[in-house]
Design brief:
The chain is an alpha+beta fold and about 120 residues long. It folds into 2 domains: about 55 residues, N-terminal domain of TfIIb (Single Sheet), CATH 2.20.25; about 45 residues, no CATH class. The chain contains 3 helices and 3 strands. Strands 1-2-3 form a 3-stranded antiparallel β-sheet, with no helix packed on it. The termini are far apart.
Length: about 120
Amino acid sequence: MAAPRLVRIETRTTVECRICGSPHFVEYLEGRGFRIVECVDCGLRYVNPQPTNRELREFYAGFDLENTWRGDEEERFDRAMWDFVLGFRRSGSILDVGSSRARPMGSITIPERLKSS
């Protein structure tokens, strides 16, 4: 009789805040099977527990890059993101690490009143 085959089961991992290292968070919202939490100490919102590699592959395999964010709402969404980010900026530059749709924030039309700030 052959030896039983071991199957590795990936499990979600609960993580500390990637910004301040705090283990303290509160639930912010839940959707599509993922929970977004907010760090009690610095306010960062992030997915926790972290999804497995398999879950990420399955999630993004179904992500329709051409139609998910197209239409009249796209510019409104981008503007809201820009306003949100600028709300944290006191001085200096902004590093755009990713905007989820491979459309850099630099492609957003910036109002003249914000260009000099």
